[in-house]
Specification:
With about 280 residues, the chain is an alpha/beta fold. It is built from 10 helices and 11 strands. The longest helix has 21 residues. It binds nicotinamide-adenine-dinucleotide.
């Protein structure tokens, strides 16, 4: 039976460290602040923004929300971002995705100053991850790496399969594992015979957004299984992994909810604190 990787408990220990760092910042007169840009009225986005803002407040990080109508022109969003870029009281800028269809996501994200890009989605930060240099790492993949490392398993030399190749999760997660010296395979919707590849993995990261895509016969006994998927079926959350049968053969597994989700928000807070610390010279 797999050991459960408790994302909530691991996130809690990260908040303990964040609290210390926020206290230190405040003692130096720096109040970390996250600006949140929400465009439109997508109910899921509203919920995500609420929980990010709540977490921030609980941890001494100020938030400033800019809620724009879903019909505004892209230029209005980019103008707002440019103002926030030069506001010294703002350390992190988060543009909640998805943006309305008439906007070019990458063009909007590219307006965020890389120093304030706490979601790590600007091309400069993506490039830093690619080259293994310093930059903001996207929150979900960063959280995934923490969860994998929490098992105590040495990632170096392990076979890791990532299912999903989005710029938000799959690709950066693959790069992070590669930078940790795993041997990485990336699968996607056009991958043939997915199960034969996932079954080779010592570490299996599933980020496809397909409920219960990964069945027990696709998992290597003893593998570390990280389930990123957040799917709602009949009002209940389920992941990309068929949890009960896979739990019986994996070595470690994350639950949904309570695995990757809490870590994503914790990493956003960590990146915001880091952005504030970076403004202190010396
Ligand atoms: P996405 O739709 O942008 O990408 C999905 C990827 O999965 C694509 O690369 C696609 O090729 C691949 N894919 C789809 N069907 C597949 C199949 N049958 N076999 C193999 N690959 C397949 O999604 P995303 O933004 O990367 O998110 C993925 C999942 O992770 C979603 O369920 C999302 O809700 C969840 N998510 C969770 C968190 C969190 O904090 N827990 C954060 C971000 C995303």
């Amino acid at each position: 039976m797999a050991k459960l990787i408790d994302g909530k408990a691991i996130a809690k220990s990260i908040y303990d460290n964040i609290n210390l760092r926020v206290r230190e910042l405040r003692s130096k007169g720096v109040i970390p602040k996250l600006a949140v840009v929400l465009v439109g009225d997508d109910p899921a986005s509203r919920l995500y923004v609420n929980s990010k803002e709540k977490r921030a407040r609980e941890n001494g990080i100020e938030t400033e929300e800019y809620h724009l109508d879903g019909s505004v022109a892209e230029a209005q969003v980019t103008e707002l971002i440019k103002k926030l870029n030069v506001d010294d009281t703002v350390h992190g800028i988060l543009v909640q995705l998805p943006l309305p269809k008439h906007m070019d996501k990458q063009r909007v994200l590219s307006c965020i100053s890389p120093d304030k890009d706490v979601d790590g989605l600007h091309a400069v930060n993506a490039g830093a991850l690619m080259t293994g240099s310093r930059g903001f790492i996207p929150c979900t993949p960063k959280g995934i790496l923490h969860l994998v490392k929490s098992t105590g398993i040495d990632v170096s030399g392990k076979r890791c399969t990532v299912v999903g190749r989005s710029s938000l999760v799959g690709k950066p997660a693959a790069l992070l594992m590669l930078n940790s010296d795993a041997t990485v395979t990336v699968c996607h919707s056009r991958t043939a015979d997915l199960g034969s590849i996932t079954k080779e993995a010592d570490i299996l990261i599933c980020a496809a957004g397909r409920p219960r895509l990964i069945t027990a016969d696709m998992v290597k006994p003893g593998a570390v299984v990280i389930d990123v998927g957040q799917n709602k079926i009949d009002g209940k959350w389920c992941g990309d992994v068929d949890f009960e049968p896979v739990e019986k053969i994996a070595g470690y597994i994350t639950p949904v909810p309570g695995g990757v989700g809490p870590m994503t928000i914790a990493m956003l807070m960590q990146n915001t604190v880091e952005a504030a610390e970076n403004t202190i010279v010396g």
